[in-house]
């Protein structure tokens, strides 16, 4: 078994097959979300679109910590397979009765199931790689998410224009069922344990993260970085309409550039070597990269700067995502991975909500300053985090307790 601190190993064939099916499912998600957003926008009432976005986001804050203990106590692979397949069935009411109330309510149910599946998925990924910690699979998963974000909206727009909302939703439902069947066919299994803290409940995930000094030290940086990225996501449309002087096409292209950066960053980190404290350092490097990209857009709001800067920011985002996931796997006991991943997902979603609320203050006049302020805040915070271990006395306080990493590699 390879060390998680070295360059990622080759991904086994079963894991590659699973990631292909997962990509199809994630593309289906993008198709369904865009299709529902377009149809609800046709009602002329923005409250329906807002309700749809809240239905997607709120479950990510509430549900994962509730499901995490079950992932650790029972077979995470079976939990993932069942929940994923049920998501396809949950789309049936929207397919049969596509009214605004049913669309939002049905999508809320699908989002609850997706949030429940997330801790199981993240706990199962290393098992698919036949390792306790796998940077390669983590990076490949991030790449799959990025690819889905790039292709999903394009496919959705074409399908919605050519055929119907129902076909878009049917494709999403089929993708869910296929992914669930794939999990069962591959006999993916992560058996739960009756000891090692599995009876600690949802709060054990938070406690396990908090007990690790380096993960605890990352939380302020993550709060700042995620909130800033969420804020500029809202401000981007105003930046396009204002300083950049573009329309819908430019907005779509610039949004896709972030996804292109995510994909490129995933490839880079999959080929990166790091030392014993590498994952935490890469989180800082990724946040610094993102901050520089956002600052450049805010400082020079012209298309010639925005294009490479958004790709750079997206690449930094991928470095943060992959290295954070690896750090959680590496630094916390395997018996509580379901809960630690659930706790981290809930925290990230909470930071994202804060950013959305701050982004609501954006306008055509303030879009550039929002990018600049957000980028500079992230840059300064990341630089401080990277330099902190060099300060005498802090190195020892941030050093990992012995036993966590070795426990993961047994």
General description of the model:
This protein is mainly alpha-helical. The protein has two domains: 1-192, Growth Hormone, Chain: A (Up-down Bundle), CATH 1.20.1250.20; 201-410, MFS general substrate transporter like domains (Growth Hormone, Chain: A). 78% of the residues lie in helices and 0% in strands. It contains 16 helices and no strands. α10 crosses α12. Residues 1-8, 194-198 and 400-410 have low confidence and may be disordered.
Rg result = 21 Å
List the helices and strands in order: HHHHHHHHHHHHHHHH
N-end to C-end Cα span: 9 Å
**CATH third-tier fold name of the largest domain:** Growth Hormone, Chain: A
Structural class: mainly alpha
- The number of distinct helices, counting runs of at least 4 residues, comes to 16
CATH class of the largest domain: Mainly Alpha
Question: How does CATH name the architecture of the largest domain?
Answer: Up-down Bundle
What is the CATH homology-level superfamily of the largest domain?
MFS general substrate transporter like domains
Helix content: over 70%
Beta percentage is under 5%
Number of domains: 2
Give the key terms:
single chain; about 400 residues; mainly alpha; Growth Hormone, Chain: A; 2 domains; disordered C terminus
């Amino acid at each position: 078994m390879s060390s998680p601190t070295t360059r990622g190993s080759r991904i086994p064939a079963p894991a590659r097959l699973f990631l292909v099916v997962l990509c199809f499912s994630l593309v289906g998600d993008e198709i369904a979300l865009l299709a529902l957003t377009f149809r609800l926008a046709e009602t002329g009432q923005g409250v329906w679109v807002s309700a749809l976005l809240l239905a997607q986001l709120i479950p990510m804050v509430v549900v994962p910590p509730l499901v995490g203990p079950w992932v650790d106590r029972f077979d995470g692979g079976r939990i993932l397979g069942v929940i994923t397949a049920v998501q396809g069935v949950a789309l049936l009411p929207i397919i049969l009765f596509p009214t605004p109330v049913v669309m939002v309510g049905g999508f809320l149910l699908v989002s609850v199931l997706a949030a429940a599946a997330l801790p199981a998925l993240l706990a199962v990924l290393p098992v698919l790689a036949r390792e306790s910690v796998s940077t390669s699979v983590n990076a490949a998963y991030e790449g799959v998410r990025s690819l889905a974000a790039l292709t999903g909206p394009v496919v959705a727009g074409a399908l919605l224009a050519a055929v119907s909302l129902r076909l878009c939703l049917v494709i999403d439902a089929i993708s869910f069922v296929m992914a669930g069947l794939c999990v069962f066919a591959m006999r993916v299994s992560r058996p739960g344990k009756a000891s090692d803290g599995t009876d600690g409940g949802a709060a054990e995930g938070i406690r396990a993260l908090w007990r690790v000094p380096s993960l605890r030290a990352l939380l302020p940086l993550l709060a700042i970085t995620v909130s800033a990225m969420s804020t500029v996501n809202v401000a981007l449309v105003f930046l396009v309409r204002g300083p950049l002087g573009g329309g819908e096409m430019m907005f779509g292209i610039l949004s896709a550039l972030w996804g292109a950066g995510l994909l490129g960053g995933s490839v880079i980190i999959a080929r990166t070597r790091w030392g014993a404290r590498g994952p935490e350092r890469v989180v800082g490097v990724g946040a610094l990269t993102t901050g520089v990209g956002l600052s450049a857009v805010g400082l020079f709001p012209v298309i010639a700067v925005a294009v490479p800067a958004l790709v750079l920011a997206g690449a930094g985002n991928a470095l943060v995502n992959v290295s954070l996931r690896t750090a959680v796997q590496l630094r916390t006991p395997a018996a509580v991975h379901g809960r630690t991943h659930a706790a981290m997902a809930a925290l990230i979603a909470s930071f994202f909500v804060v950013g959305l609320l701050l982004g609501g203050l954006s306008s055509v006049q303030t879009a550039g300053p929002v990018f600049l302020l957000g980028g500079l805040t992230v840059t300064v915070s990341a630089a401080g985090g990277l330099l902190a271990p060099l300060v005498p006395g802090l190195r020892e306080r941030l050093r990992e307790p012995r036993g966590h990493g070795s426990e993961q590699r047994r």
